[in-house]
Design brief:
By secondary structure, the chain is mainly α. The protein is built from seven helices and two strands, in the order ααβααβααα.
Amino acid sequence: MTRGLPGVLAEIAEVAGEAAALKIAARFGGQRVYFPARPGAADHWLVATVGPDAAAKLCAHFSVDRKRGNRIEIPLHVGGSYRQFLRAISERLHALDQEGMSSREIAARLGLTQRTVHRHRGRHRGKTGDDQKSLF
């Protein structure tokens, strides 16, 4: 699903998945990054960010004649502003939470950590009044 992702991020999502696009946007937004013709070792930025399978797909997609890599501008923020980017992530996380997905499943789907999912749930409960009742 690439709804709301601008240009190259939508392209990345089509090739390697939405989680990969969001991870790259979060880590390298506003920067020009180099996609090599073939992914490097596990410590290469692309492999470390999206994993070896997604990295291989992206390298194959963005390489020039499969011989040379390519430099790509990653949009500064998804949807035009950082606030919109965070809102989009929050809305997507909330929707998946309402579907009954576990923290682990949500984190894997969105490319987030489980801790981020737990923090979001805690903040959201505070806003909706669903927080725990006092024991005393």
